[in-house]
Description:
heterodimer; A: alpha/beta; Rossmann fold; 2 domains; six-stranded mixed beta sheet; four-stranded antiparallel beta sheet; globular; B: mainly alpha; ABC transporter involved in vitamin B12 uptake, BtuC; two-stranded antiparallel ribbon; two-stranded antiparallel sheet; 4 strands
Amino acid sequence: xxxxxxxxxxxxxxxxxxxxxxxxxxxxxxxxxxxxxxxxxxxxxxxxxxxxxxxxxxxxxxxxxxxxxxxxxxxxxxxxxxxxxxxxxxxxxxxxxxxxxxxxxxxxxxxxxxxxxxxxxxxxxxxxxxxxxxxxxxxxxxxxxxxxxxxxxxxxxxxxxxxxxxxxxxxxxxxxxxxxxxxxxxxxxxxxxxxxxxxxxxxxxxxxxxxxxxxxxxxxxxxxxxxxxxxxxxxxxxxxxxxxxxxxxxxxxxxxxxxx
Amino acid sequence: xxxxxxxxxxxxxxxxxxxxxxxxxxxxxxxxxxxxxxxxxxxxxxxxxxxxxxxxxxxxxxxxxxxxxxxxxxxxxxxxxxxxxxxxxxxxxxxxxxxxxxxxxxxxxxxxxxxxxxxxxxxxxxxxxxxxxxxxxxxxxxxxxxxxxxxxxxxxxxxxxxxxxxxxxxxxxxxxxxxxxxxxxxxxxxxxxxxxxxxxxxxxxxxxxxxxxxxxxxxxxxxxxxxxxxxxxxxxxxxxxxxxxxxxxxxxxxxxxxxxxxxxxxxxxxxxxxxxxxxxxxxxxxxxxxxxxxxxxxxxxxxxxxxxxxxxxxxxxxxxxxxxxxxxxxxxxxxxxxxxxxxxxxxxxxxx
Lengths: 260, 352
């Protein structure tokens, strides 16, 4: 992929994050281009999730800047970043257990539903129109993810693989420009992984969403990612297309240990 | 999820979202309203209507608590304090300034809403157990202010409160008040029911179930929590105002802390996080109290060795036992049982 001609969606400049004496991220520089699928890999504790959390605004970096669409968003609070179009799929299950699948997705679209509390009390006018309009959008996602049959089930009762899919759907309902996927395939069997990989690729192709994927399954990562960035002990040790990375001695060293 | 009867197919999203989907349900609703507004006043005597009035007021208060605790997950044991605020605002305006119900009622709602906002402010930083304690502190502060309010609140002596007057008709009997209270509680129910099925209801549940994820999804947690607190206290204020105008006289002893805990307990018994659960809880709360009133003398006769105070404490014991039993046997409350019953009627003769 010819990256240099594309615009940068996210620019991470010398980002530093520490917890007490632990340096979680050290001078990270990373550019993510519009429309690419970047995989972030590295051994456990390398700082992948920390980096996502910084981009998402959950952690405040000690120093460094994050630019999104050319604007510095380092100080923008967490809930406002969703309005900018940054969505997140979490490690593990972080759904709203007490809501149905449909309501979970609608809760993801919360920021697009524009009606005030007074029309909500009567469920007339704008409240009803907006709810129906969003419902149409959410139904498209439900179709896309093939979760029609669990539409009105409480998500707490559903199997793990299905919950992960709904988690993805909830992030999609935010109509993101940038989708952060934190281990979307952890703990899944082969079939579920294949499904998930297909969904991720489809979102990437059809919605033209930029995706940052954190994943441990190297097979999947090498297959679907446009570009890879490798973190180890809070430092970026390599970045490039999958073929390069799989031959990079530093990366092999980080995963398997250096040859003495 | 409530099963729809066979052959009911939704063709538009509006149909699917609608609550009254089948003629049967519309009929049931009309029957219920007929029962409340026509049959009940015709057949019931003043005593039964009195119970219904207290139930109606409790329903309004319980709906508010349900939005805050059941939906938004913020535990409040200062609910009775908000009711007291509503009552005292109405009474002060009525006794000192001679305002009518149509003016005192909205004022009471506004004042308790404002106090709800103030109590909600710490909720940005503190969660769960700690927010419960801070609402408890609010209760004690409120009671202290009422007791030391001097001429304004008349301390322990309490304040009189005029009966509502509309178009020259004074609502001074149980029967007249019944219509007012029922109309307002039906209105409150409709409003709460609509609120929780829009984005605000979903936002509240999102804050309850996973507040961190909710913040990632762009929900303004603090605003939603404050909103839930304000709505809760406004419902409480409305209930309190009605209570004051219904009784005609309020004193500080009518608002003990233990009632907040019973409200919470009976919300659990009714079913947290559903509007019908709150209504079941409110009805159950007041009906059990009636059961105690009827059975306590019998117990006193059967066991003469029990002291008077032993029999009087029977209410508390029964409430406690009921709450424990429900927590163990049916934590999802009466509403869950009701939904199961409805579904099995639909599915009969099949088990599921």
